[in-house]
Amino acid sequence: MSTPAADRGSTTVSERAVRRIAERAATEALAPGEVHVGRGSAAVRGRRARVGVAVTLPYPAVLDEAGERVRSYVADRTAGLTGLVVPSTRVRVRELRVRERERERERAEGTVALPSEGASREGRAWRPWSQRRFPVAVLALLCAALCGLLLYDVVSVHAGDRSPARWRAHLMDWLVTHGPDRGAWPGAAMAAAVFLLGVALLVLAVTPGRRRLLPMARPDAGVRAVLDRRAVASLLRDAVAETPGVTRVRVGVGRRRARVRAGLGFGPPGPARRAVAEAAEETLAACGLAKSLRLSVRVRTEPAWRAPAPPEAKSAIGVAASTRRSADEPAP
User: Fold this and answer.
1) How is residue 245 annotated by DSSP?
2) How far is CA 62 from CA 65, 98, 195, in A?
3) pLDDT in tens, 142-201
4) What span, in angstroms and rounded, lies between the C-alpha atoms of 239 and 313?
5) Shared-domain flag, residues 198 and 180
6) Are 238 and 309 within one domain?
7) Are 259 and 251 in contact (CB under 8 A)?
């Protein structure tokens, strides 16, 4: 006995999935790398979906033809991958960008000045700014709740001829007798707390935040990239761990400095330290950071480390071993 299709459940495609598919489809409409997509939109109603994308098209290009190709491809691709009917697709061209081959031709002809490596790495350092949505949302909700409660009590007193709430009357009496000008410590403590809160909000407003992200060098004016400090530390740790003789590695990466602490299990300390420093410097250079980090390297010997034998001792040991083998061999 088969169960009807309606009783076996249903498959729902979220609007977020439809939006992601539409954004990816827009990048595939033209040649690879020619279409850059901003944040799109999607609305799903039953088995029908309406999508919209904001794109950056290459220049020069016929806008109506390129836009129509993007629109039709997004509609067909989204419908094919989601199984939904896409009757409406909206494409908004927000800007035009010069094709890479045109830019290369201009650079070859000398009409576009290439920034130097030092300028791209040092002069164009960019730090990402944090929107700090969570603390701002919590503070806004708290202030809105307090203001709404006070407004409700004031309106009920003036419009409904009701007596003020007991908590507001007690609060006003307490503020009158315990204000900062009265010399009472609770009022001074509250004033200091409000002052510190204002200073903290000002600091949050003028500082970038996101201290875990390091800006990378910008190869183009429209490209901004960051690298997490934990990723840099992982790369340094893997590179240093491959050095012969190193058995333990600790790495700390800050905003301006990278610290490498390695433990040496065997081998001479001098060459090992130079090898660790070279591996760390090559890794930092390969990260492509906008501002190079100051590198601090320290190599310490492990408790089980033993100093390598000098060449004379090694030769003596080799001669003794060969003599012992010859003595153990039976005579013919």
Assistant:
1) T
2) 6, 13, 58
3) 989 989 988 888 888 888 778 888 888 887 787 777 666 665 677 678 778 888 988 887
4) 33
5) yes
6) yes
7) yes
How remote is the C-alpha of 196 from its chain's centroid?
30
Dihedrals phi, psi of 52, to nearest 5 degrees: -150, 145
- Quick one: CA dihedral 254, 258, 264, 269, positive or negative? negative
Residue numbers of the chain with a pLDDT score lower than 50: 111-123, 313-314, 316-317, 319, 332
Residue linked to tokens 């490596």: 117
Q: Is residue 120 part of a domain?
A: no
Q: What count of other Cβ atoms lies within 10 Å of the Cβ of residue 229? A: 18
pLDDT digits (tens, 9 = 90+) for 49-81: 999 998 888 877 788 888 888 999 999 999 999
Token couple for 8: 């076996």
pLDDT of residue 252: 92
CATH code where residue 42 lies: 3.30.70.1350
Question: pTM of the predicted model, to two decimals?
Answer: 0.44
Tokens (6 digits) for 152: 């409700």
Write the DSSP string, 279-307: HHHHHHHHHTBSSPPEEEEEEEE-TT--P
Residues 180, 107 share a domain: no
